[in-house]
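User: When convenient, might I ask for sequence and C-alpha cells for a protein?

AI:
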Amino acid sequence: MPIKNRNLATVLWLFTCLFLLILSLGLSWQVNKSANFFYEFWYSQLNIEQTVNTYVPQNTKGKRDFASTDPLQHIKSFNEIVYEINNNGTGLSKLSYQNKDKQHKLLLTTAEVVHLQDVSDLVNTLRLVSVINLLLLLIVIVVVYHFKQPKPLKKQQYMALTIPSIALFIVFSIFGFTDIFYYLHTLVFPDNHQWFFYYQESLMSSLMKAPDLFAGIGLSLTGVAFVIYVIIYRLLMTKIFKG
C-alpha cells in the first residue's frame, strides 16, 4: 500500500540510520570482543610492555612481581578480563597470574574488581539496549517496506551522514579524547566506586595503558562499525526504499 510522502520518508530514513548505527556498533563490539579488541596489535603499537616494566616495579599493592612476567602473560591477563566483563564478571575476583617463583597471585585488587563489575553491568545493559534497538529497526523497516516509502533526496542523505561526523570531530578536537573519556566515567559509574587508577597501584591500568588503549579500541570499534553500517545501509536503500 504505497503512501508517497517525502517528509515521512525522510523521518523514517533518519530513524533507520540511527537504529542502524546503534546496531552496527553492537555488532562491531561482538567482532572486536571475539578478537579481544586486537590487544596484541595495540600492545605492540602502544609499547605496553614498556609501561608494565616501568610502573609495575613501583606497585603499591604488593604485585611488583608481575614485572617478571612476559608479554604472553600480559596478553593472557587482558584476554581473561575481556572474557569476564562480557560474562557477568563472576570470575573477576579469582583471576590470577604466575610469578617467577611459580606462585599464583590474584591479578586484581578489590577496587579493580568492583570497577570491572560495573563495566560488566554496563555491557549487560547495552546488550539489552541492542536488542530493543534491533526490534525498533525491524519495525521501521517493515513500515517503510509496507508503505513503499521513497528514497530520501541525495542532499538529505549526505547532510544526515556528514553533520554528525563533523560534530563529533569538532567535539573531540576541542576537548580531547582523554578529557571526554574521563568525563563519561563520571556519568556512567557510581560516585562511590573508584574508576581512576594510577599505574603504580593497578596492574589493570598498566596492562591497558589507560586511556591510550581505549583510544585504539575506539578506533577499531568505529572502523568495523563503519564497514558494517555501509554494507547494511546500501542493502536497505536498495531493498526497502523505493526509487
In short: The two ends are 16 Å apart (CA to CA). Residues 6-239 form one domain. DSSP finds nine helices and two strands in the chain.
